[in-house]
Amino acid sequence: MLRRPGLTIAVCVLLIAGVIAVLRARGPVVSTTVVARTDIEQRVVASGRVRVVTRIQLSAQVAGRVVAMHAVEGQRVSEGDVLVRLDDAEARAAVTQARAAVGQATARVAQVRDVSAVVTTEASRQAAANLARVEAELARVERLAAAGAVADVDLDEARRAAEIGRAQKTAADAQQRASMAGGVEVDIARSAVAEAEAQLAAAIARFDRMRIVAPHAGVILVRDAEPGDTVLAGTTLLEMAADGVTQLVIEPDERNLAWMHLGQRARASADAYPVDVFDAVVDYIAPAIDRQRGSIEVRLRVDDPPAFVRPDMTVSVDLAVASKRGVLAVPSDAVRDAATADSWVFVVAGGRIRRTPVTVGIRGAGHTEIASGLEEGAEVVLGAATTIDDGQRVRARRVDR
Fold it and tell me: Is 304 buried (19+), middle (13-18) or exposed (0-12) by CB count in 10 A?
């Protein structure tokens, strides 16, 4: 053969071809495992943020100059704390002037009640006495005129005096009624008090708008002004997070919606403090899907938040959505098209593979439940074996997983 190298090459080629033919006849090697019963817990793990349930923007209600800022970012404040003061000199003067007007109007009511009432009562009494006198004089003159003892001019004069007396008595009585309780002068004086008090309330309201107070207890998030700044009405000066329920917001894939419901418990951790895990409860599931991202907003309530939890902090949420014990399962990479309704696996039987449709259930950490289509002990192909075809002969290599 050494003298005939061509023959040697031909023999080698035939041997190699024979080996290849034998290997092809036996089929490729595929990794397999068997369908077995196990416990599966399906979990949804998602990143999210700490949600500020009540985020308040505190704005200037009037234009003015900032004279004091009593809050800094991160500061905890109580309800009613003065956070910002604007220049209030003019507003303060208006309040003083309005208070003086209230005092003046109130004094006028007292004057009408305590002085005018007495004066008009006395005037009415005097007018009554005068009327009685002139009427008596008129009666005397009329008797004398009837006897021809006085001239007609005296009678006319007596009659005019009586008419004047009656008019004076009517005017005095009217003034007395006006100055008594329920009278016109009292009502006018009290109306003036009400008007002055309204103007005082308006002045105090304008003065109060020169101060910005905390509407709730909470934490200052943003400070957008400094002393000396001139601000316009509506300018945001501070932003705060009011104390209340702490919530976490995640947006898992919409495919998890069927497994999620209110009241489910979860474990969460902040990215800044990954070791410190705390509890959360599903409190809200959005009624609509985000059609652009195919996700759904889920909010979780934290009843006992750790001290380090801050607004907008990034968190990781591990939510247990389903669990089953002793169900048939295979490694997840053995299931093809698992996210569709046409899931299937390669089953090895008699040295050949068969494409077998299956119905999947919950998906755990690395394993998927087989609800129907396979029996316990069946041997399935692992991994993305894309080079094999249905019915092809294969050599199974069992892998325990």
Answer: exposed
